[in-house]
Write the structure tokens for this entry.
Amino acid sequence: MLSKENIDKLIFGGIYRVDYDDLKVWCPNQLEGFNDQHYGTWIPVHSINKEGKENYYMIDTYQMSGDYFNNKYSNDKEERYKSLLEGLEECSNGEHGNYVARLPFNYYYSAIIEITDENFHIFKLIADLHDYKLTDENDGRKYNEEDVLYYVRLYNEHNYPKGIVIVKKDAKINYQNNIEAKISDIKKWIKYPEPASDYEIEELLSIEKEAIENNAEYDKCELDKFIKKNIFIKELKNIYNSYLKALENE
């Protein structure tokens, strides 16, 4: 049985984890070597069957169907994320949840655990998704690591193969991370001794300016070294081009 006190603590729109030792007791098939039918992310489901029997379950999102989410392919990322939340919230509806709770039994390694007062403590909240918004892997690099969740999958093959990236709504930009991300991007596109374009350097300096305006910490020494190195490479290229032109005129 699950007490009202613990029912009220469940977050429909939250994602949970179950640690290894607890899986050994409550859902050992998830630890079998050939089991690739799980993501390790669990969501709560309220189920009332036709006979009126009421239960609460946790199911692994690998065994959740995308059919239970509307607008999951919308081009509007806010609309897309809203539909994901609504789909998870709908799992609090007993009649709807009864259908969802049957889904794991379509899998050889069914990932479903009935929630009781005895095992309520094993479900550790990863995040309340109401406190997050959709972002992407590149943009996520600008924030503190603890404010971003990568590779979140809320149903089978959700945004295959990596899932989605979400960030806390109140997350602040970490300007050191932002500068490092921009430098990393620049390095991907240039081949030494080719310098970065003026446009890319201007973007980098605009990030530094924003950091200064916000009194944010960042490694100015490393940034200055990168800028000076780029100036030097640019000068080398000019010398090289002048040399080529002189050769042509011989």
Remarks:
- The longest strand covers residues 42-48.
- The two ends are 93 Å apart (CA to CA).
- The chain is about 40% helix and 15% strand.
